[in-house]
Amino acid sequence: MYRTDHVTEESERTAFRKAEKKYKIYYDNAKKKKIPRPVDLSEVIDFRSILESFKRSGDLPDGVFELKCDFNLPVFGLVSRPGFYFIPAALSVEEQCHWIRESLTTFPQPPNRTNHNAIYGPVQDLFLAAKEGKVLVEEDKLPENVDSEVNLDQSNVNARHWNFVKLNEYCCRDACKSVSASALLRKLRWSTLGLQFDWSKRSYNVALPHKMIPEKLCMLAKRMAAPAMPCGEEFHPEAAIVNYFGLGDMLGGHLDDMEKDWSKPIVSISLGCKAIFLLGGKSREQTPVAMFLRSGDVMLMAGEARECFHGVPRIFTDPENTEITPLESQFSDEDHTSFLDYIQTSRININIRQVF
Ligand code: OGA
Ligand code: MN
């Protein structure tokens, strides 16, 4: 499973690993205050500023081209990475807020799975429970209305044991295990929509119960995928992985190679705090290209780019660098302080795939 990539001495020496180390957050402990060590960002491609100067003058830096296609916004490509496309500021602030809300409320709802399933079984209404200051408690008795003979798969067994309770109703009678909903929300790392991905086997498990990807997300993915689709074909979103990044989180270099047809793009949406994305080559030995990802940016990886290692070594959670001011004002206007609190130090990535 690539999220806990085993780091061997050998892989420590690759060009990809060197770039990860360059951009990863390190702290200088000055007077017990954690201060991020300064990092040289001069080589990081900034598609937002490329877009601004392109709109002003029509000029593009060496190595960047505009894809000629029927799309309402400029779509950029990199000469060195065929099949990779970047659509800066593809989503409006309203759309970004909508998908942040969905990513925190409906997307992690069962039967969609999250990283918490393995320990707690299906967890319902995590975001609401965190907002209400609830605690997930391991019950020592099965609820009476549950037939212990049915649904004996592991996730259902767990479901009968862990329940959210209000803090004032929670007394630790028999020293039962508990965890606060807000701690669980901070530790939410992924949820899967549509066909469920089994991280332990690194494959889609079509036998797992699942819901279709929500229609509105399907429509968005189809529209965004169009510039990278083979002529005359339509994208069919079948699965999506939602990644949640908090302070200090990163996504190690990996390939997404479990889908059948690599001519179909992966549509990747960035929300929340700014991040650095590394797009390597077909081997870890090739030096990756670094670029900023900001809230509302969309990337497409199709064709040869599907064979390229990539990862996210850094998210920016210090207020000067998150670049989410429009999101903050939108969420404060709407009085959604809990969304605001979450997104001020988090990034969400929704990547949508055609599996077959
Ligand atoms: C992934 C991935 C990139 C991102 O989930 O496979 O590559 O921008 N995500 O978070
Ligand atoms: Mn990936």
From TrEMBL:
Residues 236-356 form the Fe2OG dioxygenase domain. Fe cation binds at residues 254, 256, 310. InterPro entries: Alkb, AlkB-like, AlkB-like_sf, Oxoglu/Fe-dep_dioxygenase_dom. Its cofactor is Fe(2+). PROSITE patterns: FE2OG_OXY. One of its GO terms (molecular function) is dioxygenase activity. Pfam families: 2OG-FeII_Oxy_2. Keywords: Dioxygenase, Iron, Metal-binding, Oxidoreductase. Binds 1 Fe(2+) ion per subunit. It comes from the Eukaryota. Belongs to the alkB family. This is Alpha-ketoglutarate-dependent dioxygenase alkB. It comes from Abeliophyllum distichum.
